[in-house]
Structures are given as structure tokens and as C-alpha cells.
Specification:
Radius of gyration of chain A: 23 Å
CATH superfamily of the largest domain in chain A: P-loop containing nucleotide triphosphate hydrolases
CATH class of the largest domain in chain A: Alpha Beta
Shape of chain A: globular
Number of domains of chain A: 2
CATH topology of the largest domain in chain A: Rossmann fold
Number of helices of chain B: 13
Order of helices and strands of chain A: EEEHEEHEHHHEHEHEEHEHEEHEH
Radius of gyration of chain B: 22 Å
Strand order of the largest sheet of chain B: 1-2
Oligomer: heterodimer
Distance between the termini of chain B: 49 Å
Strand content of chain B: under 5%
Strand content of chain A: 25-35%
Helix content of chain B: over 70%
Helix content of chain A: 25-40%
Largest sheet of chain B: 2 strands, antiparallel
Structural class of chain A: alpha/beta
Number of helices of chain A: 11
Largest sheet of chain A: 6 strands, mixed
Shape of chain B: elongated
Largest interface: A-B, 37 and 32 residues
């Protein structure tokens, strides 16, 4: 669905995007993980043609952004980082205007609006001006705007930042449904680990360069450590752990030991089975992957 | 047909955005409001005294005639400035650039020319609507204080409003292409709102300016729309006053209140004033289209990917 080859975009000395290449296959949920300023939004702006690249090639559904943007636009739905809708106009007016720009008839607009209003739960907000809505309500309308013309590719630029958990679930349920029923491709930029962990493929971008790219599971296997948390154990076990020079921390009596992989975890548990009464084995997390790959701590969310 | 519907929807949206934004509406109404306040507080009585100074002692002229004259002067001032200041402050294109709504439109399959035209037309319509309302108010006001307008005067005033609005819209659209920050927008709006009243002779008749200033102002096309508005708003009252005034005093009165203007030692004829405004509109429209085209070309990507410079 998206093919990017050797894309570069420099802002004077700042290498916002520095020779990146990747492919997003149709129907995939593709996550772009990186800190602010890593180059995620620049890449998205180039795909949307809001920015011109210094060099490189970008194809959407086989069409070049250099030559075929008019044919690409109807396939694109974009949720920007900040709302770009008209704050003084009603939700209905905002969505109607945007739908008309995609050539939707009134009947098509009505059908699509009804579907989205039901799924995103904003039917009762249609006549309200956008600036009278809460942050979560506004975000739902932003997402409805991106989906109003049934795009094949949905680009979500940090869509759930600052959203309450309930709205986040609502949004992801709809995105999952559209992926399932319409094979919609989703390109997501996020710094929420739990969102990235749900993706089919994750690309970690740092200082404009791709530093890791694989499925979340493979990334975890490759870059993340696995852990054991010991809650109830023999007093002598801690001395043995220290003596064996295992990387560990102790917090309020709970010992967390870090291992390279699950084989080591298994071996430790078998060896010390009689000394341990309550424990938890934890597979490596995406924030651990990110830390090991970039050497930087990513904020926001720690699950997954 | 598709692009026409998009244009219609966009123009409707742009006009709506302007009228729904109370702050935007208020800012664009500052100049007319200042003029009304100035007129009510002191300008009205100053011009009333100035008109009566032309009338010989012992001649009794009705209050309705004097009020009709000064009222015409007030509303010609309001309309001369509003056509330009409202156009500047109601330019939705600039706001869309600043709050990035324009990015949202640019990711839709809508031609950039359609988008640009929608901003121009909406700006023209909002300005025309506001000025049209001001003109309606002026007719009501003059009907109450002293009605001396003919049907031809009203038709000609409407024509001047139309041309002046087009002139203001062209100016505002050109300026809008270069405004890229909230600070710049506020500065331009404030500057135009305060300056245009002076240079178009709305606050003070051009005839009272020093000769060098008058010469400079004579080269500004907007001046001629002010003079034309004054001419048609005050034609009826000036002719009626002529019955009471000695020979030559009517021309002197008209000149004092900018009902006519001199350039290169002679009075500029009415047709020439219309021609100047129309030429200015054509030239400004050409500049706007050229600049829009050049800006669009700058944003358009190269046909083939460029080779990266080695760093």
C-alpha cells in the first residue's frame, strides 16, 4: 500500500528524515515509533504531499506522489496531531464540507455519517460547535473526518494522545473493524507502547533514521530482556542471586531479575523451584525494545 | 460540475466561518465603529459648522438639508474604508493557514485553484454583505435625517461599492499570500484599519491635507472610490444647497468635502475616476493570480525525484 525508497528531508542542518525505506502492505497496521522530532510527522507530511522531500520515492497503492496525487488523495484519510477542523462550525457542517470535497453525494454522506456517528458515539453532538466539545469528543470527530470518505489508507498521527481510556477503546475498536471488513491499511505514529505492540509491524525511527523494523514479537525477542518478579521466596535466594551476579532490583521485597531470553528464565525457575513460592515471568516489553535500540526512554504507556 | 460543487461548498463554509467568529467580525467592524463614534462626538458638529460657513448670513437653510449633507459625508467615509478594511480582516485564507485547516483541504482531491478562488469569492461576498448592510443603514439614516438621493445616485453608489469591494478584496488577497503568523495578521489588520481611514480621506477631507500629501494620495486608486462615493452621496444635497449659495460656492463646497479632486492642475472627471478604479482592480487581480501561481509552483514537487546532495 505504501512504498518508500531512500526518502530524505533535511531542514538546513537538521536531518529530519535521513534515507529511510520501508513498505506497508495492504491491510496492515503499521506503527511508526519514535520520540518527538524523530521524523515521524515529517514522513507523514511527505506522504500527504504537505512537504516535498529532498530526495527519494514514495508510492501509495502503486501511485507516485510526484505525479499522481489527485488519484492518491481519495485513498487517504489523515488524523493530524492537532485538530484542523473549524472550531466555530458545528460537527455536522465540518463533516459535510469535508465530505463534499471528496465528491460524496448527500446520500453517501448521510450513510457514512450515520455509521461513524454510531461507532464513535457522537450522534448527539452533530449540531454542537466544535469548540464546545471536550478533548475526547473533538478527537472522535477528527477521526470521523478522516474516515468520512471511506479511505483505503488511514494515517493516524499520534491519534490517541491525551485521550481517556474509554475513547481510546472506541477508536481502536472502529479501526480494527474497518481493517477487518474493508481491509483498510493503517499507518500509525505513536509513542504509546501498547498501541505499537498491537501493530503488525513496527518501525522505530530515531534522528530521522530507521533503527529497527520488525513485528513486535520479533523486536521483543531480538531487543527486549525478559523478567521474573519474585513475590514470595526463601530468604537465602536473594544472596544466591547476588552471588550469581544476576541483574536485579529489589523494591518493597519484590525482586525483579532481568534475563536475556525466556530460556534463561526457564532455567532459573527450574533450578530454584523449591525456593520460590510466588512469581511472575514477564516477556520483554516494547518500551524495553525502544530503550535498547535507541538508548532513550519513551514516555507514555508501559504495557505491551 | 464536481469542482463547481466543491467551490460552492467552500465559499459557503468560508463565509460561515467569518460570520460565526464574533472576534473576527468585531475586528473588521472597528473602522466603521470608530467613524460613527467620531461623528457622534465631534466630527458631525465640525462638518455641520463647516457647511453652514458657506451659507451667507441671513439665509435660512433647513436642518434636513444640512443633516443630509453631513450624513452623506459620514456614510461615504464608512463605505470607502469598510470595503478595504473589512476585506483585510475577513480574509479566512489567512486564518486557515494559521490554524492549518488549509492542510486538511489540501489532502482532499480539490484543485488548489478551486480552493484559492473560494477564498477570494468568500472574501468578496463577506465584504460586500457587510458594506451592503452599512449602505442599507445609511439609506435608513438619510431617510430619517434628510433624503436627497436620487435613484441614479443609489445605483451609482452600489456600483462604486462593488468596485471598491473588489479593489479591497484584491489588496487583501495579495497581502494574505504573505501573512504567515498571527502577529503579522494582527499587525496588518491594525495598520490597515487605522491607516486606511486617513489615506482615503475618511477621517479628514483630503482637501485639508498639505499639497504634497494630496499629491501622493492622488496616486492611490482607493482615493477615487472615496471621492466617487462622496460625489454621489452628496450630489443631491450639494445641488439643493446651490439654491442658497452664491456663484462658485457650490464647487468650492464640493471640493472642500472631497466631492471632487484635482490632479495635475485639473479636476479629475467622473469617468476617469471609474476607469482608474477598474484598471487598479484588473492590475491587482493580475498580480494576485500571478503570485498565487508562483506560490503554487514553488510548492509543487519536481516531476522526477531530485538527486540528494551529498553532505
Amino acid at each position: 500500500m505504501i512504498e518508500i525508497k531512500h526518502l530524505k528531508k533535511y531542514f538546513k542542518d537538521v536531518k529530519a528524515v535521513d534515507d529511510i525505506s520501508f513498505t506497508v502492505t495492504a491491510g496492515q497496521l503499521f506503527a511508526f515509533l519514535g520520540l518527538n522530532g524523530a521524523g515521524k510527522s515529517t514522513t507523514i507530511n511527505i506522504i500527504c504531499h504537505a512537504l516535498l522531500p529532498d530526495s527519494g520515492e514514495v508510492y501509495v497503492d502503486g501511485l507516485s506522489i510526484d505525479h499522481d496525487m489527485p488519484a492518491i488523495y481519495p485513498k487517504l484519510g489523515v488524523v493530524f496531531q492537532n485538530s484542523v477542523l473549524d472550531p466555530k462550525l458545528s460537527v455536522y457542517n465540518n463533516l459535510f464540507t469535508r465530505a463534499a470535497l471528496y465528491g460524496l453525494t448527500k446520500a453517501q454522506f448521510k450513510t457514512n455519517l450515520q455509521f461513524l456517528a454510531e461507532k464513535l458515539d457522537f450522534a448527539n453532538l452533530l449540531q454542537r460547535p466544535l469548540d464546545k466539545l471536550s478533548g475526547g469528543q473533538k478527537r472522535r470527530i477528527d477521526i470521523a473526518r478522516a474516515l468520512i470518505h471511506q479511505p483505503q489508507l488511514l494515517i493516524l498521527d499520534e491519534p490517541t494522545t491525551g485521550l481517556d481510556p474509554q475513547t481510546r477503546i472506541l477508536v481502536w475498536d472502529l479501526v480494527s473493524e474497518l481493517r477487518r471488513t474493508r481491509q483498510m491499511t493503517v499507518l500509525l505514529t505513536t509513542h504509546y507502547m501498547e498501541e505499537a505492540a498491537e501493530a503488525d509491524h513496527v518501525v522505530i525511527i530515531d534522528n530521522g533514521r530507521i533503527v529497527a523494523s520488525d513485528t513486535p514479537n520479533n523486536l521483543k525477542n531480538q531487543y527486549a530482556n525478559d523478567f521474573i518478579k519474585l513475590y514470595d521466596y526463601d530468604a537465602g535466594l536473594l544472596k544466591e542471586i547476588t552471588k550469581a551476579k544476576l541483574t536485579h532490583t529489589v523494591d518493597k521485597g519484590v525482586v525483579t531479575i532481568t534475563f536475556d531470553d525466556m530460556t534463561q528464565v526457564k532455567q532459573f525457575l527450574v533450578t530454584h523451584a523449591n525456593q520460590i513460592r510466588d512469581f511472575e515471568a514477564i516477556k520483554g516489553r516494547m518500551d524495553n525494545v525502544f530503550l535498547n535500540v535507541t538508548g532513550k526512554q519513551l514516555q507514555g504507556g508501559s504495557n505491551g | 460540475m464536481g469542482e463547481y460543487r466543491k467551490l460552492r461548498v467552500l465559499v459557503h463554509r468560508n463565509v460561515k466561518v467569518y460570520f460565526k467568529d464574533k472576534m473576527l467580525f468585531f475586528v473588521s467592524m472597528i473602522t466603521p465603529l470608530i467613524l460613527v463614534v467620531l461623528f457622534l462626538t465631534f466630527l458631525g458638529s465640525i462638518y455641520r459648522d463647516a457647511v453652514t460657513s458657506f451659507i451667507p448670513d441671513g439665509v435660512n437653510v433647513s436642518n434636513r438639508l444640512i443633516n443630509g449633507f453631513t450624513g452623506g459625508w459620514l456614510f461615504s467615509s464608512i463605505l470607502a474604508t469598510s470595503c478595504v478594511t473589512v476585506a483585510f480582516c475577513s480574509n479566512v485564507m489567512v486564518n486557515d493557514k494559521l490554524n492549518r485547516a488549509v492542510h486538511d483541504f489540501r489532502i482532499t482531491p480539490t484543485k488548489r485553484s478551486t480552493l484559492g478562488l473560494s477564498y477570494f469569492l468568500a472574501n468578496f461576498l463577506t465584504t460586500l454583505l457587510v458594506c451592503g448592510t452599512a449602505f442599507a443603514v445609511s439609506l435608513i439614516y438619510l431617510a430619517i435625517v434628510g433624503w436627497y438621493l436620487s435613484f441614479a445616485d443609489i445605483a451609482m453608489i452600489l456600483l462604486v461599492i462593488l468596485l471598491n469591494t473588489l479593489f479591497g478584496t484584491c489588496l487583501a488577497s495579495i497581502a494574505g499570500l504573505f501573512i504567515n503568523s498571527q502577529g503579522a495578521l494582527s499587525a496588518v489588520c491594525t495598520l490597515v484599519s487605522s491607516m486606511y481611514g486617513f489615506i482615503s480621506g475618511a477621517y479628514m477631507p483630503i482637501a485639508q491635507f498639505a499639497a504634497p500629501m494630496r499629491a501622493v494620495i492622488g496616486f492611490l486608486p482607493g482615493t477615487y472610490s472615496t471621492v466617487l462615493l462622496r460625489y454621489y452621496f452628496m450630489r443631491g444635497t450639494t445641488e439643493a444647497l446651490g439654491e442658497y449659495l452664491p456663484d462658485g460656492a457650490v464647487d468650492s463646497l464640493r471640493r472642500s468635502f472631497d466631492g471632487s479632486i484635482e490632479m495635475f492642475g485639473g479636476e479629475v472627471p467622473i469617468w476617469a475616476m471609474f476607469l482608474i478604479i477598474m484598471l487598479a482592480v484588473v492590475v491587482l487581480l493580475g498580480i494576485y493570480l500571478l503570485l498565487s501561481y508562483l506560490q503554487g509552483r514553488r510548492l509543487r514537487p519536481a516531476k522526477a525525484p531530485r538527486v540528494a546532495k551529498s553532505v
